[in-house]
Amino acid sequence: MTGATVAHRIKSDFDAMPLKMRVASHFILQHPSEVALLSMRELARRAGVTASTMTRLAQRLGFAGFEELKSVFADDMRGSVEWFSGRAVGMLSRRETVGEAGLIADMASALADYVSALASPRAISRFTAATDLLAEARRIYCVGSRASFPVAYQFSHVQNYFWDRAVLLDAPGGAGIDLLGNAGPADVLLAVSFNPYAESTLRAAELAAEAGCRIVAITDSDLSLLGRRAAVSILVPTRSPSFFDTLTPAFAAGDILMALLASRAGAGVPESVRKRERLLVSAGVFRLDKADVDGMGAAGGAVDPS
After folding, report:
1. Among the CATH numbers 3.50.50.60, 3.30.565.10, 1.10.10.10, 3.40.50.300, which is that of 3-79?
2. Which one, of 35, 80, 38, lies nearest residue 61 by Cα?
């Protein structure tokens, strides 16, 4: 068994759990490395529950006791860098001890660890499952609000180079969510949100679920307000050594999903991209040097200086 299996069991049973057990479950999934390293009593103290609650939770999940549950996270910790990614998180005050060069190194190291973790076996299985849903969708509705909006926008924008399935819920005038009126079981919602979760994104997820849409989430926890509604969640951290959250891992996750989708879209993708590029140039959206226009698309990549 793996931590991903434990997460699935918790997610499936979460709403039926007693309150204290939900608190313990949320703590376990948010702090897997601590589960692997600390005693049950210390974990219970940090989670704000009793040790007996931890024991009952482990038994509810199918383990004889908490030590069996702990061993699952210990095995994952030994086999995946993902558990260590959060250890790079620090405070801006670190500049006083390591200087600006050290702060730069902290930021670069944390972001590199976060992105590298997207290649872990657990992450790969989630990317594959998400792509299975997205590739078969009639329409892919894309939603993200405030800081998360650029991730949803980029995911929708790049799709326009090779097919016409993407629908961005960008809400000019507050009407974006209206587009979900045509959504149904053949469609998928790609939703991006992190704690604290944008109310408009959560509402879009609620409406999509009511319409029968499956949801692929880029979020920070299986038990997040968004993750609990998702058929598949791509989990990415957002904390950074600075005071602000980072969206670099979320952008990377979107890029990986897009690469997988484009690779499954078939042999017509290069020509679709070339047609899109020519349209944008002829429409005056952007201007390239003549040599670039003559060779546009020859390298097989999309041209979009925006």
Report:
1. 1.10.10.10
2. 35
CB 213 within 8 A of CB 185: yes
- The pLDDT confidence band at residue 109, using thresholds 50, 70 and 90, is confident
Q: How far apart are the C-alpha atoms of 61 and 10, rounded to whole Å? A: 7
Instruction: Give the start-to-end residue ranges of the domains of the chain.
Output: 3-79, 119-264
Distance of CA 270 to the CA centre of its chain: 27
Amino acid symbol at 289: D
Strands (E), the chain: 140-144, 166-168, 188-192, 214-219, 232-235
Give this prediction's pTM: 0.67
pLDDT given at position 95:
54
Average pLDDT over residues 117-122: 91
The mean per-residue pLDDT over the stretch 223-246 comes to 85
**One-letter amino acid of 258:** M
At the topology level of CATH, where does 119-264 sit? Rossmann fold (3.40.50)
